[in-house]
Amino acid sequence: MVFLPEGSLWNIPSNLSYMSSVSSVRDAMHAQTVLEARALKCDSDHNLHVDLGCMRGIIPREEGALGIADGSVRDIALISRVGKAVCFVVQDLVFDNNGQLVAMLSRRRAQELCNQHYVSTLQPGDVVTVRVTHCEPFGAFCDIGAGVASLLPIDAVSVSRIPHPGVRFYAGQEIRCVVKGTDSFGRILLTHKELLGTWEENAALFTAGETVSGTVRSVEPYGIFVELTPNLAGLAEYTPDVKVGQRAAVYIKSILPDKMKVKLILVDSFDEKAHHNPPRYFFEGEHMDSFLYSPACAAKRVETIF
Question: Minimal CB count within 10 Å: which of 10, 67, 79, 220?
Answer without folding.
Answer: 220
